[in-house]
Every structure is written in structure tokens, then in C-alpha cells.
Design a protein that fits this description.
Elements: E1 25-29, E2 32-33, E3 39-43, E4 46-50, E5 58-66, E6 70-80, H1 106-124, E7 145-151, E8 154-158, E9 165-167, H2 176-179, H3 182-188, E10 195-201, E11 207-211, H4 224-239, E12 246-249, H5 257-263, E13 269-273, H6 276-286, E14 293-297, H7 300-305
Parallel strand pairs: 4-6, 12-13, 13-14
Antiparallel strand pairs: 1-5, 2-3, 3-4, 5-6, 7-8, 7-10, 8-9, 10-11
Amino acid sequence: KFLFSSNHTNWRTSKLAIPFKVGDKIEVTMDRLAAGGAGVSRHEGVVVFVPLTAPGDRVIARVTFIKKNFAEAELVKVLTAGPSRIEPLCPVFGECGGCNWQHISYEEQLLQKRNIIEFGVKRLEPSALVQPVIPSPEEWRYRHRIQIHIDEGKLGFLRRRSHKIVDIQDCPITEGSVVNQFGKLRTKYANAEPTRLEIGLRENGEFYKIDLQKEDYSFSQANRYLNKQLVQTALDFLARFSPTSLLDLYCGEGNFTFAAADRFPKMPISGVEFSANAVEVAKKRSLAYGDRVQFFQGDVAHFLAD
């Protein structure tokens, strides 16, 4: 439908580019959701991504960015709401950059997550079967760790597409015992330099905080309710191979390592992790397992090469 030439490197100024420009308002109907959270639609044959929309929404959107084969736009007005659109629970949703889908029913979120995976997998293997997403037992208050920003008395997450902080008193997706620390942290860092912290609960329920500008950290599954199912699924798969030893690479504090040690009580296990903090925590816990469970701090690629 549209002609493109390799001589036209500036798509925004080329007369042969996408037939609308940045700043234009367009009317689109959202078909599905994309990885990253934005709704996906088509306008005059061009794919357009619009954040904060839901499948079935008919909206007015303002074009903000144009590339060779797609465009991005911001939501201006919902003309007709899709069947899965709901009222967000969080009062700063849409302003805060921490969440993307609170305006969509949880059932639809699960369906769209499966569709996103299926869309990617079937490009590689058309016959692949993608199972339904396992839902979280808790739709709210499921995160046991978050990363927050503190500056000039404000505590919260960064504003969408900004480096400014959205000040919050609560976060509905975060466990209450973590949220209860907000007041203490706001007071403690009231006169400090801008700070970015990871705060959360360890497996034993102990509260921790890490200054991300001074210390390293490692990934851990944020939803502790689903984490048990995740670990169980991995170990069930591992058991098919009757392993005699195990390397847990990028092991963090040993989320999979210790579960594997309990499941296979005679098997030697080595965990490898770059974060010194995580390895320190893991080593203390590993004392109960003797020499059978060991942890090494360092880059995984270097460890394997050695």
C-alpha cells in the first residue's frame, strides 16, 4: 500500500512515509495487548501502539512517535470501552510508571499474557502449543519486593516517561508488611541525597533494604505465592533426567538451589551469582547443608570458562 525507498532515511520528513504525522489525532480500535503493556491497533494499514488501552477499546489517540513500520500514540479519550476495561484500584494508576494493566480485568490480563507468548513462539514453531497462564492466588498484595525512589520527602515510583517521582502512601500490588515501611524510610531519608532502594521480604519474612546506588542486587521472583509453583515445576522437570549434580547459574540467594537440595538430598549443588550480597545471604543459609551445597560469587561466563 505504501512505497518506501532506501534513499529516504528520515521517515518523518519523507513524502513516502506513513500517511500521518506526529501530533495528529487518530481514531483506532484496540485489537490486543503487546509485550510492554501497550494496546495494538491499525490505522490506515499501519500498526499503532497506544498505552493504557484495553482490547476492544475505541479511542482517540495522539501520535507521538513514528518509525518505518509502526507508530506510537498517547491516549486522549476513550470513545467506547472494551468489555474487559475496569476501574483501576490504585489512585495514581496511569500517572505512575509502575503498572500497565490495572484498568483491565485479571482474567483478560491472563489471556493476553498467553497470547503474547503464543505470538512469539509460533513465529519460531507454528505447531507449538502454549498452555493457559497459571493465575496468582492473590491478585493484589502479591509483590514481596519493589524498587522505590526517595527525594525531597517524596517516596514512590517514577512517573510514566519521566524521571520525576510520583509520591505514594500505598501500593496495592505490594505486600502490606513492605508498605508499612514507607513512613520509616521517608523519615530516615528526608534530608538525604536522591536515593533508589530495593526493599522487600526474604523467605524467612525478614525485611531488607538495599541501596541500589551503592550495592549490587540480584533477581528474585517478586510474586512469592507463584514462586512455589514455579520452583516445583522446574524441579519436576529436572527429576525426569535423574541428575547426579547440579549447577544453578544466576542463582540469586538460592531460590532454586535450596529447593533442589531438599528434593535431591544426596546431590552436590553449586550456585553461581554475581551479586555479592546475594551470595553472602546464600552462604549463611547453606551452612545447614554442609559441603554438599556451595555458592560462588562472580560472573557466570567467567565461572564456566574456568
